[in-house]
Amino acid sequence: MIRPLGVTRGLHDGLYVQFSEVLDAGQNARLHTLHRALMADLPGGVDDVLPGYGNVYVDFDAALISPQRVRTWVQGHLDTLGTGAEEGGRHIDLPVRYDGPDLPDVAARTGLSVAEVIRRHTENSYRVYAVGFTPGFPFLGEVPGDLRVPRRDTPRPLVPAGAVAIANAQTCVYPLPSPGGWNLLGTALVTVYDPNRDRPFLLDAGDTVRFVPGDGETPVLPAERGTWPAHPAHPALRIEEPGLLDLLLGGGRLRQGHRGLARSGPLDVRSADFANGLVGNPPGTPLLELTLRGPVLTALRDMVVGIAGFGMAPDTRPMQQGFVLRAGETLRFTSTRHGARAYLAVAGGLETTAFLGSADTDLLGRVGRPLRAGDVLGVAREVAAVPGFASVPLTLPDAVTLRLRPGPQASEEALRALDGASFRVTGADRMGLRLGGPRVPGGQVISEGTPLGAVQVTPAGEPIVLLADRGRLGGYTKPAVVHPLDLPLAAQVRPGQTVTLRVVADAGDWNMPASPRNTKN
Known about the structure:
seven-stranded mixed barrel, alpha+beta, globular, 7 helices, seven-stranded mixed β-barrel, 521 residues
């Protein structure tokens, strides 16, 4: 069945095409056939199509394409899907050093010896059901029945790169350091993702993997892949001192979620588009996102600059109005402690180098990096821009309330716990907002695509609001989703701030059947 997500640039909506509620290799092959067909026939406004274990998540912008048109497009491909014969995958042996910190605990919980846990984990070949969560992260199945243990109730804030882990019937390799709630058994001795390789991703959906016990050194992390030229054609800005987190961003890295790459893009799209508009750039033109504390920049040429957003303001320069910055002048910022992110645009946009269709920074995927002292950014196009453009100033409320719509795993108990409750932001980054407060009923689901703004709740009852750099697939329940019009407000929340949540009515069923023929899970 199709599950819609209720419904400006940026009225994010989505639906799930459900094939199976359990791990089913045959249905997984069919959904990947649908994924390939949809990706080959993408209409404008569809931002991504993410295949999971048992469903396909279609992410679209309801300001550009109607939900009904998306449903009709998807249904047309379902009607011609047929048996879904799968393209042949490869077989890969993956050496593993079994030294994971959870290995003794898994042995104790399953009643097996450590040696027997290793033997059971390595005796099977595993199908790559999906790639996601983070770049190149393979979701593999199925783990032998007597080796299955659930995810951890509370995810680790950081799992090391190369960790090999299990959760229920799934096993995986963490390609890069990231949060994660799986049980760690060992360390892969081969790098499964490197953005600098001709083939960045070692594994694809439909491949099979067998883990082989081995010894050796942990592979080094791949180098960061640059997103701007080392020697720009039109040098414009030199970074004298970096701010807390200054990132080059544009319109987002769309249609790469099936590889696990972050959607990226500005967290506060409204402020970013406003900044670009101040200098005559179209929405999505590459600019800088500045977080909490701004950088010190020196102009290397005359240019028109626009700054919009919150959390800081330029010294001696207007906020939310285009102005001329002369060659040799220095731009500094003062923190305002109201809001978290501001955006700096230059007329003509910033010069970039693309990776898979986008130059947006993906911190987790090691695509791009924060600005450093000595970096030089160039302007992409020399344009004759007029300074002085402004509009109604953007504002932030003193007290933050985020509206929620029911999510894909909505329950009366979870929505009641969220509605009207106040939470303290215990952590905030581009992946999401961790909220501390009343316990919310949560749990686990078979891994599936994660909507932008989803409120993910772990079995420990801790809500996390998922933002632009979230894992693209996840296995915790999502009882609610932040209303798309409130995502810019969520982007401006600071650690320690109090946030109130309010559930609003939203009609619609999240599920769309895969086809009338597919009623067997």
